[in-house]
Amino acid sequence: MAKVTRRTFLGGAAATAAGVAAGPWVLRAHAQSGPVKIGVVLPYTGVYAVLGESITQAMELVFARENWTVAGRKIEMIKEDDEMKPPVGIRKTEKLIDSDKVDILTGPVHSGILMGMRDKVHSSKTILIVSNAGADAISRERCSKWIFRTSFSNWQPNQPMGGWVAKNVSKEVFLTAPNYQAGKDMMEAFKETFVPAGGKVVAEDYPKLGETDYAPYLTKIRQSGAKAVYCFFSGTDAVNFVKQYDQFGLKQTTKLTGAGFLTEPDVLPAQGRSALGVITGHFYTPVLDNPTNQRFVKEFREKFGNKMPDGFACQGYDTAETIVRALKAVNGNTQDKEKLVAVLEKTEFDSPRGRFRFDPKSHNVIQPFIYIREVKEVAGGLNNVPIDKVADVRDPGTGCALPA
Ligand code: PHB
User: Fold this and answer.
1) Between residues 93 and 13, which one has the greater pLDDT?
2) Within-domain flag for 182
3) How far apart are CA 80 and CA 125, in angstroms?
4) Is the minimum distance from the CB of 170 to ligand 1 under 6 angstroms?
């Protein structure tokens, strides 16, 4: 065995840390030939199961394009169902980090699960690419240098909508969303521009996540006399709310508006014509006519039985694309986490949503546009058609500009 003195060992380690070519033995010692393990914490059961499925499918589409090999290393996805339960999500995160020793972690969908995972991820210096959960705090006071978000902060699709609804729909609005962090974040973001534009929140109400009977809430909406509703619901909650809203006869009297998740293609087929005319704000719609999106929609539909990609699929695509580009930039070396962070901060590419880049101050994606979209009948069925847009929407968070 070659004799390695303390001096040469330290010298080699320092040279490697500084990214300096340091002789063949150091390179050999650091060569990584095993698979890149990507831990995936997503809901595959429960209210948001369809979201987890869309994100996973689009990630697989991108990795398949690379033949599941990047910079000479196989890509291995280790998928864990968080069952939409924070304690389960946290347990699965610990398992992926401590037992599987994943190189990169992605997920989750649920803001509460992200908040629960945050300290474990931060203290273990695990790179987490958030592929949905929008908890604003992760771009702000709970920012971590190891956490990036390819999806959105809860603030992003909602803040531009407040002023827009006040100007174009109504100044008397009822707010409703599931009673947990994402619902609260989104309604607060809406108010930020709605109230200064002269809007009045007639009332607000927060049913439990996973509610199936919205009748008591719809009764309150009718009694409030509000001219419009602004809401956030997603997954099976979005299906139930939109259908029951229509069955209750509210559609004719009270304009339904909300965050884009309400009428994404994951739920539109189940909502059917009840969703027609609903106005929402989102960073994506599959009808965008940029070439990357056109190719994505075509390939996704071919691979997944003609399924229309939704915003969640776009997030999965961008998560996988970000990982592929970062791995190529570090030549497959996932051990130097500082280097990976530096590379991730500079990641930029054409996404189905437009030009993708992170804000280095928050590690959160800058949305090229938030589209105001209306559900219309177009070729191929119902879809979200842009009727207006707001450019360059970045979360106000600066949490990652602070020292770690
Ligand atoms: C969240 O919990 O952050 C969340 C969940 C579902 C969505 C959007 C945000 O559609």
Assistant:
1) 93
2) yes
3) 20
4) no
